[in-house]
Amino acid sequence: MSDVSASAVASLRARTGVSMMECQKALTEAEGDEEKAIDILRSKGEAQAVKKADREQGEGYIFSKSDDGKVAIILLKCETDFVSRGDDFQAFGNGLAELAFNEGEEAVRNADDKINEAVQKMGENITLGDVNVVEGETIGCYVHTNGKIGVVITLKGGSAELARDVAMHAAAMNPLYISPDDVPADVVERETVIWKQQLKSEGKPEEIMEKILIGKEKKFREENALLKQEFVKNPEQTIEQYLGDANVDSYLRLSVV
Asked: Which residues contact 143 (CB under 8 A, 6 or more apart)?
């Protein structure tokens, strides 16, 4: 069997954490038998990675590299906080962020061999959670000191300091959308069903229920919108007011779940 399907390679990759190329070679040698392919990988010294591939990664760290209107930000997952804070993991993550910044997102997504080497070296299952390269007119990046939350904000106008302040706010307050109008209709509809049930259980008369629902929807949209939130550094201002003439062009938030 010389041809191996992409889905078969992807399945073996998911089970083992080994590079796509090595998975394809092993499957070809095993004539498509996944279990035999795993044994082949083990015999070639990939056993440690295979054993760790199905272990959960509840920890990780966010790494970033930024300069001159461009940010690369990645989430690298691992099993323990101890490893995520270690020098080897930190150096590896910073190297991947540098790679993304210099060569683009795909260069990191295709770095299977590097990740597999890290698995072998650090003794834990390590995977790439997310990788993004963001460019903008004015850009700000904030990664919380614990490395668990990272935000990138791009602005039209404003300054880098302004953008970073807004990114820091978003890291703390976790808005889901930029503006109230960005909240999807289906999200509002789901909430409306709940509100109606609550109002009925409270005995609210039908004639005032519609007015109450309009108020609830407005509040819900604004609470989940970055621009309408009270600025954490000055609650007397909303983010929209703090920005002045600048406008939020994009918003990206990563977090270690």
From this structure: 62, 63, 64, 73, 149, 150, 151
Domain at 6-52: CATH code: 1.10.8.10
Write out pLDDT tens, residues 40-89. Answer: 887 776 645 554 555 666 899 999 999 989 999 999 999 899 999 999 99
Tell me how far apart the alpha carbons of residues 114 and 33 are, in angstroms, rounded to a whole number: 26
The residue whose two tokens read 């590079």 is 19
| pLDDT tens digits for range 27-36 | 999 999 888 8
CATH topology of domain 56-135: Tetrahydropterin Synthase; Chain A (3.30.479)
pLDDT score, position 47 = 47
How many Cβ atoms from other residues are within 10 Å of residue 168's Cβ? 20
Q: How far is 125 from 27, CA to CA, in rounded Å?
A: 22
Give the residue extent of every domain in the chain.
6-52, 56-135, 184-223
Nearest Cα neighbor of 8 from 29, 26, 32 is: 32
Q: What is the DSSP string of 51-116?
A: HHTTS---EEEEEEEEETTEEEEEEEEES-HHHHTSHHHHHHHHHHHHHHHHH-HHHHHT-HHHHH
Give the separation between CA 179 and CA 175, rounded to whole angstroms: 9
Give the distance, in angstroms, between the CA of residue 50 and the centroid of all CA atoms in the same chain: 25
Q: What is the pLDDT of residues 160-202, one digit of tens each?
A: 999 999 999 999 999 999 999 999 999 999 999 999 989 988 8
pTM: 0.76
Domains 6-52 and 56-135 share a fold: no
Count of C-beta atoms within a 10 Å radius of residue 104: 13
Output Rg (C-alpha) for the chain, integer angstroms. 24
